[in-house]
## 1
Amino acid sequence: MTAELPRTDQQTKVYAAETPHFAPGDFQPPFLLRFGAVIIDYIVLLILPLAGLLSDKLVGTGGFGIFTDRTLWLLAVILAGANTVLLPLFSGQTIGMMISGIRIVKNDGSPLGLFAVLFRQTLGYLLTLATFGLGFLLAAVNTSGRALHDFLSGTTVVRARKRLV
């Protein structure tokens, strides 16, 4: 008889891919939920430049004198980079995805790796934008609910809330 080691949280973590009949469609969010997450991310991207513009218009040239235009744009670029690449790398979600309750995973349901995040969130998004948004609308018309950047990077978007599997 062998002694069993106590199980830690890492050992008991079960991903959807480890279930006997994992199908991404079982966890697929509706297209409008994905679209809402994109809109929230867009608002997050524009919040700092808009704050600078409003302070210029309300107070006059120079705004409140706290930040310059260059500083606001630099902070906006840093925030956009963190929201687009760093957050998905560590949590599989952008701010918009966190609010809307969806997550990016590999096709088999396992967490994302570094290459998948970098490819999907940079080159994949650029190719989706190059199609004038048609690559994103692909998620609305196919049965798997995957957009162009998902097909290219081998990922899918699923509901992030815990559900009984």
Note: Confidence is low (pLDDT under 50) at residues 5-18.
## 2
Amino acid sequence: MDLVASTDKSIQWTDGMEDIQALSATLKRRRQINFLKAYVDCGNIRAACTSVGINPASVRQWRENDEWFRKQYLEAEQSYRDLIEQEVHDRAIIGEQVPIVGKVLTPAGLEDQIIGYKTVKSDLLLMFHAKRHIREYRDKYAPDPDDNKPVRESPMVQINVLIDRIAEKATIALPSSNPAQLPPADDDVIDVTPEGASPSLHSDITPEP
């Protein structure tokens, strides 16, 4: 007390609450990270809490009130699903190496020993794997509505297609202007215009007096 009273510098008293809160937040984050690591390995909330010494109620509270933990929890959940998916793929398609046990003659007599290995695949897991990735293998298969949706072209493309169709119809309906492509006439054309007279283009019109 004498030392404080004799100093000529200002003293700012603190209760250390900020440090305590920062330490508490750090410990909480570490507990969350430990839980997430355990959850990725087992995929079970209660088992993960038991392994790291956390109450499951704390995990529920974190998921409701902590945005960072909620996102990390979803990532951990997806990681565990990917782990299951890989394991199903390996057992269904690649298969497991199962030992073959046979009788082997030894100095002590016949004994059961491993004489080889065989690859065993799971038809049941393959069925579920196929249903997971191929819609046609599912029990209640419904075609994807997007498969039958008409392709909507841009207005400019639609106009160009319409112009091409009109031009195609006009080409079919009208004869070609090239004389070489005209069909041959059955009879020769006879000119009946009197000699010295020019044919009138409007012979059906009576001139006025």
Note: Residues 67-94 form the longest helix (28 residues).
